[in-house]
């Protein structure tokens, strides 16, 4: 599997660490309810198909969002992480 | 038809023309008391225990493919009761006891082999953690023995003791742990349920769950609508899809775990051995192949197949730990869909929808739980209260933070368990 | 029997090897299989279950029967296919799975009781008496199971792994692959051409087929030579592509040097090939027909016989019979006859005249029986004219061809049934970027293959953006139609074999259907058909046909077989090459490593790092003595310890303080320059991630320290937080763990010691507890921190890493002058236990700030990572297991980590760390106990039932030594 790092170009899977769904970028604001935190930390759509993942390119430390399929593993696009988007 | 050596002999004389089907292929009825979605190990065991323990037989198991075609047919067959934390400790202890009587109960040879599970450790810190866990096992009433380096050498002399990057300090040995034949377990439970009157419906995919006024009414399937008083969801990696049919969003992320088997070899490994500096584990099947695996691939997946980096990591761990397997050849690799939960421990609980019950979150450890999970889920379905061995497997524990069972200590990231 | 011809062998170079101790002579280029065939050895193995005699069936990697063990000791390779092992002088080959010998195998008795060993029999028995399963039945089953044996010796780690990249990977170098490679290479693409055989040519090497106006093998050699001369082409011979993975990644196994005696070259190389596009030109594999007694030695595939003839100049018998359902049977007869082999007959299953020759030809023919236990001697046929019983010592079967679809199934693809050729073909797009061509796509004539190779490469080139220049001319070649009438089985009395290795017959498949194992997967698992080392290459389709027939469905409706990697078995030592010993993981060494080793310190693993355990002195009997002494150094004089391995992250920028406010639970932005603060970091789920310190070196400059264990995790976490949540902050940070050597200097005489190394005297009053600043030491700029993990007056001094060794020596020498010295991990642990300071033994990932009594550090004034989740009621429950200190009641009792703490309700907690405190004169420890801090003063029983240790312990506040901290704050 190959993923495109925004800084380094297309690199092999073994250079990347996966974190989870990109909804981790939508962090609840201070004072959010327990339900919001529960949703954020635990509950997932967990789609069989198109998803958005968070990956770290270990050699350069860049975090990126990948649009990927969980059934075919094909990576459609990647972009560098920016705050607040999911 | 009861199985026995005598029966094998008799049927052999009749040129094997008299064997009966292991199970029927019934048409689904319009309604059942309980519908179990998922014909894998856990679903089939649930049906069996509903019939055998609770006398409930107006039950259907709906399986979208063929029985036992999911994770139960793809795993590395390890059976053990060596967990650390309360909640898991009593559950797996009970499950192991069920394993020990399983052949007799099912009249099917599941080839349960209590050859011992050896968890190696490679530092003082790891040893201390192993001691804590071994003591938890003994306190639970199960068996654990602490081995030093020489003790490990006596059991598995072919480990690399001289040259290993992370020397073996010792191991925690669990004599009653071992392996079983995975297909046989599924088939044994299936046959047991079927002969007690449970309908096993294959090639029947659930496409919708009917709910009226917060109460479950039945399911829609590719083979028609089926009404049900209660519905139990036990579909492992597909839990989120099926739960979504009831409007539920689960704390589950589905991941791929690769596993491997080598060509058949004469006996060389008599125990299950796990490596402490990486999630590598290995045993030898009764057919002779070395069965082994390691970590998840770590990215969310429904593909039931993984990629080379993790496959190579697993091979590296094997080579570094027991270099004599270097000349063994990997014959086949495969993958399953693991329903990973935020603390790595399962969920057996009711859902906010009345009459809808959930059994999921087994991550990659579901095989050993097949009898215990089926038993507990049957109890919950039959009596509407959790069985005492599974009382902590609550769905709401993540929201409240109460009763988390994080064996790995890695926190609320699904793929780290 | 050796005949003329055979372009693979060099008759000028005879080679001797042994088979089961018997010397066999062959030629350079022979495989073990061809050499045995030349020597007339027909019995090469025994089947798995019934131990029936087995002979060669194929000439390639799909061989199910001729599995042998080569070599000894570390070079012992079980389950080697004799068809793939080229001979070299002195090669030792042993047959497998037989005792006492291949010709007299005691386990053949299984065959006599075969009716009782049918499909799934072991599920129905071996259950009584219960204890017998593990004591009697299973051991017997295990001993009978398996094929070859591992030697038990550590396999020498000489194989390698490699990466390669290309525009186009061509899999298979037959006519299709060669044309594809030529097309792509001439267009300028980077091409890798991989082929399983010793040289390119594929099927052309095994047939008398002309390409253009030359023999196919010669045309192939010319094409290969042109490719080899091109700089943009790499030819990988003896290389099998084993798996198709995501993103155009392929695994491949190259048999680099297995065709020669073990030497300097790696025996195998496992390739990871990243290809932008690929052409699957892997050809097709021949399948058999299941007729009664079709498993005798001497019965093989017709295509294999042509391979043996043309490549190695050998024939499987003197009087050869041929049986099949397609026109290959006539080609086979002609080729063998031209080499001087007697043809017993040709039996065509099809009705009507198809071919003639100087031998009997039977139409509408079925082989219904064969004779000859250790090797074929006779055949009984039904045919349009009646019945015939004929002598023959070899029977060649042509049951049709299966396109090699395997790789196309590796990514969840399922092949498609093509009725016209009675075979499965690849589903288009099953592997993104992979184009099937030639026989692999179901096109069997030579002309079709040549054209298809060009077509497939053309498609790939267009997608890659290359223009087609220098497109090769298509040479003329035969274009005969594939004239097959499918026949899968012959229904006649007697067992007809499907899976030759696992001994699965057509009866077994029908029995499975009878028992309602009607799905393909159930049938396969129940009968074990297709689960042998050939993964069913030779039997899957026939078994599927039997199942279809037994369940009244067509083949396509019954379901398809699928394949998973690897296409051929791959040694663990190849896929894991380089992992033995030091190759498994990096070893991180501190700047003082050599100095510690020189002092005799045992170095122990701390993650990837090596750290000194203790520094033994002459006359000390054991580590405890050293440890007690070192603790004394720190408590009474001055001790020096290497803390370089702890994580250090340099954080700079105007917003550095704000950034740290967000990652730490407590505040950092208010820290004054020149001061240091203890910090607690939570995970977002509210549990403790790590603790450490932040030192403010300037307004816009912090140095964050982490534990050794969590350094990498914290760094990745901070990078995520900054990029994901705080991208607009003006802050940058970098890991500097390896850039600085750092030493703890601790004890009542710490200042004296530092005075002797610092270049300029320091006014110690200007260095309050938890302060920091720049210093100069030995002419080198360094940093000094007043912090203490030992609870004594303590500092840490840091210099650039390359000076660390020298500084360590200087510090230790001066410490020893003062009656102190170096101290290691054991002493460090005791010192911190005496003070109740925590490590990851306590912060084990399930622990909250509340659990360790640091709830007060969670700031109410700002948001921070973990704040929300830490407020969950379950994380604040007083009955949680919470941190306590422990003291053994009796001076001779031990507290041990991992023991449980027993109160009235049973196990109520556990010990995380423990050690003997020379300062306090007894064992102390830390642990977690339900309601912990509310139970100080309670007496519990510590039980380590694993090691039978029991002791009374008192629950105390953690850190009983100098609880006010006067020694370190003074």
From TrEMBL, chain A:
Signal peptide limits: none
InterPro entries to which the protein is assigned, alphabetical: SoxD (IPR006279), SoxD_sf (IPR038561)
Gene Ontology biological process: tetrahydrofolate metabolic process
Pfam families reported in the protein's UniProt record: SoxD
Molecular-function annotations in GO: sarcosine oxidase activity
Protein name: Sarcosine oxidase subunit delta
Organism encoding this protein: Kangsaoukella pontilimi
UniProtKB/TrEMBL annotation, chain B:
Reactions catalysed, as given in the entry: sarcosine + (6S)-5,6,7,8-tetrahydrofolate + O2 = (6R)-5,10-methylene-5,6,7,8-tetrahydrofolate + glycine + H2O2; sarcosine + O2 + H2O = formaldehyde + glycine + H2O2
Known EC number: 1.5.3.24
Assigned keywords, A-Z: Cytoplasm, FAD, Flavoprotein, FMN, Nucleotide-binding, Oxidoreductase
Subcellular location: Cytoplasm
Class of this enzyme: oxidoreductase
PROSITE patterns attached to this UniProt entry: RHODANESE_3 (PS50206)
Family affiliation: Belongs to the SoxB family.
The name this protein goes by in its record: Sarcosine oxidase subunit beta
Organism: Kangsaoukella pontilimi
Upper classification of the organism: Bacteria, Pseudomonadati, Pseudomonadota, Alphaproteobacteria, Rhodobacterales
TrEMBL record, chain C:
InterPro entries in the record: 2Fe-2S-bd_N, BFD-like_2Fe2S-bd_dom_sf, FAD/NAD-bd_sf, GcvT/YgfZ/DmdA, GcvT/YgfZ_C, GcvT_C, GCVT_N, Sarcosine_oxidase_asu
GO-annotated molecular function: sarcosine oxidase activity
Domain SoxA A3: start-end pairs: 494-578
Keywords, in A-Z order: Oxidoreductase
Pfam families in the record: FAD_oxidored, Fer2_4, GCV_T, GCV_T_C, SO_alpha_A3
Aminomethyltransferase C-terminal domain ranges (all copies): 882-955
Domain GCVT N-terminal residue range list: 593-862
Superkingdom in the source lineage: Bacteria
GO biological process: tetrahydrofolate metabolic process
Family: Belongs to the GcvT family.
Stated name of the protein: Sarcosine oxidase subunit alpha family protein
Provenance organism: Kangsaoukella pontilimi
């Amino acid at each position: 599997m190959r993923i495109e790092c925004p800084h380094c170009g297309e690199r092999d899977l073994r250079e990347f660490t996966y974190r989870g769904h990109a909804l981790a970028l939508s962090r609840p604001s201070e004072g959010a309810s327990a339900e919001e935190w529960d949703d954020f930390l635990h509950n997932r759509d967990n789609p069989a198909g198109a998803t958005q993942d968070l990956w770290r390119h270990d050699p350069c430390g860049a975090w990126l969002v990948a649009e990927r399929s969980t059934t075919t593993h094909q990576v459609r696009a990647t972009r560098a992480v920016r705050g607040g988007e999911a | 038809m009861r199985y026995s050596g005598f029966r094998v002999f008799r049927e052999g004389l009749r040129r094997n023309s008299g064997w009966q089907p292991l199970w029927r292929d019934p048409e689904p009825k319009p309604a059942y008391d309980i519908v179990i979605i998922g014909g894998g190990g856990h679903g089939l065991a649930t049906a069996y225990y509903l019939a055998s323990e609770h006398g409930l037989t107006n039950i259907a198991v709906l399986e979208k493919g063929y029985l036992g075609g999911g994770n139960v047919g793809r795993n590395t067959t390890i059976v053990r009761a060596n967990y650390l934390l309360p909640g898991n400790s009593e559950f797996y202890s009970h499950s192991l006891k069920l394993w020990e009587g399983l052949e007799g109960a099912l009249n099917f040879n599941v080839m349960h082999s209590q050859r011992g599970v050896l968890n190696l450790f490679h530092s003082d810190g790891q040893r201390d953690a192993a001691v804590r866990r071994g003591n938890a096992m003994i306190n639970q009433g199960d068996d654990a023995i602490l081995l030093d380096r020489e003790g490990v050498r006596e059991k598995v002399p072919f480990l690399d003791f001289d040259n290993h990057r992370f020397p073996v300090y010792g191991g925690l040995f669990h004599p009653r742990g071992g392996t079983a034949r995975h297909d046989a377990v599924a088939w044994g439970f299936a046959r047991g349920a079927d002969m007690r009157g449970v309908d096993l419906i294959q090639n029947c995919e659930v496409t919708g769950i009917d709910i009226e006024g917060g109460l479950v009414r039945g399911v829609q399937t590719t083979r028609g609508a089926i009404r049900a008083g209660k519905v139990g969801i036990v579909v492992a990696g597909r839990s989120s899809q099926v739960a979504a049919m009831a409007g539920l969003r689960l704390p589950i992320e589905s991941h791929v775990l690769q596993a491997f088997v080598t060509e058949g070899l004469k006996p060389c490994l008599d125990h299950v051995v796990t490596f402490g500096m990486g999630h590598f584990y290995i045993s030898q099947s009764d057919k002779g192949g070395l069965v082994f695996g390691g970590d998840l691939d770590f990215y969310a997946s429904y593909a039931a197949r993984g990629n080379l980096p993790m496959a190579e990591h697993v091979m590296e761990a094997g080579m570094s730990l027991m270099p004599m397997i270097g000349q063994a050849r990997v014959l086949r690799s495969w993958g399953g869909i693991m329903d990973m939960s935020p603390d790595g421990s399962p969920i057996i609980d009711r859902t906010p929808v009345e009459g809808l019950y959930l059994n999921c979150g087994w991550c990659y450890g579901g095989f050993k739980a097949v009898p215990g999970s089926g038993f507990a889920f049957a109890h919950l379905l039959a009596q509407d209260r959790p069985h005492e061995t599974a009382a902590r497997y609550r769905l709401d524990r993540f929201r409240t933070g109460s009763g988390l069972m994080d064996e790995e200590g890695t926190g609320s990231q699904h793929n780290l368990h | 029997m050796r005949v003329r011809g055979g372009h693979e062998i060099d008759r000028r170079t005879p080679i001797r090897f042994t088979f089961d101790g018997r010397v066999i002579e062959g030629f350079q280029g022979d495989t073990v299989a061809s050499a045995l065939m030349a020597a007339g050895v027909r019995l090469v193995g025994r089947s798995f279950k019934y131990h029936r005699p087995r002979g060669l069936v194929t000439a390639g990697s799909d061989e199910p029967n001729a599995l042998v063990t080569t070599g000894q000791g570390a070079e012992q390779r079980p389950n080697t296919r004799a068809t793939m092992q080229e001979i070299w002088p002195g090669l030792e080959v042993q047959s497998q799975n037989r005792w006492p010998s291949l010709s007299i195998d005691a386990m053949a008795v299984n065959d006599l009781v075969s009716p009782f060993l049918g499909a799934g029999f072991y599920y129905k028995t071996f259950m009584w008496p219960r204890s017998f399963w593990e004591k009697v039945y299973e051991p017997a089953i295990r001993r009978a199971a398996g094929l070859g044996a591992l030697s038990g010796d550590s396999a020498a780690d000489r194989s390698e792994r490699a990466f390669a990249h290309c525009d186009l990977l061509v899999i298979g170098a037959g006519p299709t692959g060669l044309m594809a490679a030529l097309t792509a290479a001439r267009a300028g693409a980077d091409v890798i051409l991989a082929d399983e055989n010793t040289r390119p040519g594929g099927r052309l090497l095994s047939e008398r087929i002309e390409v253009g106006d030359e023999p196919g093998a010669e045309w192939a050699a010319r094409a290969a030579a042109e490719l080899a001369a091109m700089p943009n082409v790499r030819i990988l011979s003896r290389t099998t592509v084993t798996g198709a993975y995501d993103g155009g990644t392929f695994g491949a196994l190259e048999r680099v040097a297995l065709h020669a005696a073990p030497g300097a070259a790696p025996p195998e190389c496992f390739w990871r090939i990243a290809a932008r596009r690929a052409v699957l030109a892997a050809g097709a594999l021949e399948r058999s027909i299941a007729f009664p007694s079709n498993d005798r030695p001497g019965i093989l595939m017709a295509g294999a016989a042509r391979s043996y003839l043309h490549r190695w100049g050998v024939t499987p018998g003197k009087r050869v019979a041929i049986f099949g359902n397609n026109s290959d049977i006539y080609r086979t007869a002609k080729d063998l006859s031209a080499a001087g082999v007697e043809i017993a007959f040709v039996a065509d299953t099809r009705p009507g005249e198809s071919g003639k020759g100087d031998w009997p030809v039977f139409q509408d023919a079925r082989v219904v029986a064969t004779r000859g236990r250790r090797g074929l001697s006779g055949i009984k046929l039904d045919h349009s004219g009646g019945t015939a019983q004929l002598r023959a010592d070899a029977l060649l079967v042509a049951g049709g061809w299966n396109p090699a679809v395997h790789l196309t199934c590796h990514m969840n693809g399922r092949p498609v049934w093509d009725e016209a050729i009675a075979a499965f073909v690849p589903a288009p797009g099953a592997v993104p970027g992979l184009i099937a061509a030639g026989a692999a796509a179901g096109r069997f004539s030579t002309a079709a293959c040549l054209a298809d190779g060009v077509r497939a490469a053309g498609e790939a080139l267009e997608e890659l953006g290359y223009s087609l220049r220098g497109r090769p001319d298509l040479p003329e070649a035969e274009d005969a139609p594939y004239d097959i009438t499918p026949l899968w089985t012959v229904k006649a009395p007697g067992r007809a074999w499907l899976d030759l290795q696992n001994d699965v017959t057509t009866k077994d498949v029908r029995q499975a259907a009878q028992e309602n194992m009607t799905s393909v997967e159930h049938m396969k698992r129940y009968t074990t058909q297709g689960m042998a080392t050939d993964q069913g290459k030779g039997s899957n389709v026939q078994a599927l046909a039997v199942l279809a027939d037994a369940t009244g469905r067509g083949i396509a409706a019954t379901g398809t077989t699928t394949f998973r990697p690897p296409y051929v078995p791959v040694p663990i030592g190849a896929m894991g090459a380089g992992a033995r010993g030091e190759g498994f993981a990096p070893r991180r060494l501190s700047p003082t490593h050599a100095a510690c080793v020189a002092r005799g310190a045992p170095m122990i693993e701390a993650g990837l790092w090596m750290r000194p355990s203790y520094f033994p002195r002459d006359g000390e009997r054991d580590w405890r003595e050293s440890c007690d002494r070192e603790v004394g150094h720190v408590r009474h004089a001055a001790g020096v310890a290497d803390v370089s391995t702890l994580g250090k992250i340099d954080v700079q920028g105007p917003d550095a303080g704000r950034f740290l406010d967000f990652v730490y639970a407590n505040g950092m932005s208010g820290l004054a320059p020149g001061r240091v603060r203890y910090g607690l970091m939570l995970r977002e789920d509210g549990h403790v991630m790590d603790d450490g310190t932040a030192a403010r070196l300037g307004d816009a400059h912090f140095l964050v320290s982490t534990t050794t264990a969590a350094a990498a995790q914290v760094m990745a976490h901070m990078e995520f937080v900054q990029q994901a949540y705080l991208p607009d902050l003006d802050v940058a940070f970098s890991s500097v763990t390896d850039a600085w050597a750092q030493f703890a200097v601790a004890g009542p005489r710490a200042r004296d010691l530092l005075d002797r190394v610092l270049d300029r005297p320091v006014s110690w009053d200007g260095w309050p507890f938890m302060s920091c600043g720049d210093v100069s030491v030995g002419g080198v700029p360094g940093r000094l921190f007043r912090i203490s993990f030992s609870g004594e007056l303590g500092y840490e001094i840091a210099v650039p890493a390359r000076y660390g060794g020298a500084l360590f020596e200087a510090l230790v020498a001066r410490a020893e002058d003062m009656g102190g010295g170096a101290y290691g991990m054991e002493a460090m642990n005791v010192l911190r236990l005496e003070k109740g300071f925590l490590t990851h033994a306590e912060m084990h990932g399930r622990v909250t700030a509340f659990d360790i009594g640091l709830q007060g550090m969670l700031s109410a004034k700002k948001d921070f990572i973990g704040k929300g989740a830490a407020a969950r009621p379950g994380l604040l429950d007083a009955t949680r297991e919470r941190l306590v200190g422990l003291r053994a009641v009796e001076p001779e009792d031990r507290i041990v980590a991992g023991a449980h703490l027993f109160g009235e309700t049973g196990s109520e907690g556990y010990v995380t760390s423990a050690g003997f405190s020379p300062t306090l004169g007894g064992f102390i420890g830390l642990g977690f106990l339900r309601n912990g801090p509310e139970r100080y003063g309670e007496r519990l029983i510590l039980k380590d039932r694993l090691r039978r240790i029991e002791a009374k312990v008192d629950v105390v506040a953690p850190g009983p030594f100098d609880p006010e901290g006067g020694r370190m704050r003074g």
